[in-house]
């Protein structure tokens, strides 16, 4: 990412991401990643238009074999890249599952073709990991560019005071986003990261993964 990150974002390796989130000013731990060659080839060579959305809740330690069975049942074509995707999701699930008091993880994987989540918002949960495997990544706001009083009013102009404060996660990177129910100190906590799905134009699509930390 060539430009400076906002103060509410810490860039860290995966093994230090949860530690980064303990900082009161960190609402997003951004993990730079390089996808495997098999997964990259899989993502570039297919449209996945026949695949069904996956939305399941599983124990945090679910292994890659079980995840690949889910992908197969959803119609993801057999390929070494499918195996690589299952392994990658398992690794990310382990990361989310290491958050204290997390008993299970809700996994959603879907091909996004609409602008249904175009409004900036926060999540009503402790923590969500997002990764856009293919296409434009999740966008989030610098706190200095954000007016939280405008949230929930269906108007991005009431939330975003400065469009230069909009940042976008790179394709393939992972972001651990604090939600409104983050379990850290409540005093001074502004609320979860303000973010949205990026605008999509006709013919564009994203392959999007989210993993929600669910309490015991």
TrEMBL record:
Pfam families: DUF1826 (PF08856). InterPro entries: DUF1826. It comes from the Bacteria. This is DUF1826 domain-containing protein. It comes from Novispirillum itersonii (Aquaspirillum itersonii).
């Amino acid at each position: 990412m060539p430009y400076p990150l906002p103060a509410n974002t810490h860039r860290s390796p995966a093994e230090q991401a949860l530690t980064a989130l303990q900082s009161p000013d960190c609402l997003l731990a951004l993990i730079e990643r390089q996808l495997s060659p098999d997964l990259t080839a899989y993502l570039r060579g297919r449209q996945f238009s026949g695949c069904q959305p996956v939305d399941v809740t599983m124990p945090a330690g679910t292994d890659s074999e079980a995840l690949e069975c889910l992908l197969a049942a959803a119609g993801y074509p057999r390929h070494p890249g499918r195996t690589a995707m299952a392994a990658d999701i398992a690794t990310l699930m382990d990361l989310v599952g290491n958050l204290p008091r997390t008993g299970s993880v809700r996994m959603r994987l879907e091909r996004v073709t609409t602008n249904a989540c175009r409004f900036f918002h926060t999540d009503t949960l402790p923590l969500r990991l997002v990764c856009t495997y293919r296409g434009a990544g999740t966008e989030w706001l610098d706190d200095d560019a954000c007016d939280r009083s405008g949230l929930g009013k269906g108007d991005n102009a009431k939330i975003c005071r400065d469009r230069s404060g909009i940042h976008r996660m790179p394709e393939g990177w992972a972001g651990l986003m604090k939600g409104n129910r983050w379990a850290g100190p409540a005093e001074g906590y502004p609320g979860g990261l303000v973010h949205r799905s990026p605008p999509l134009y006709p013919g564009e699509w994203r392959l999007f993964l989210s993993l929600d930390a669910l309490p015991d």
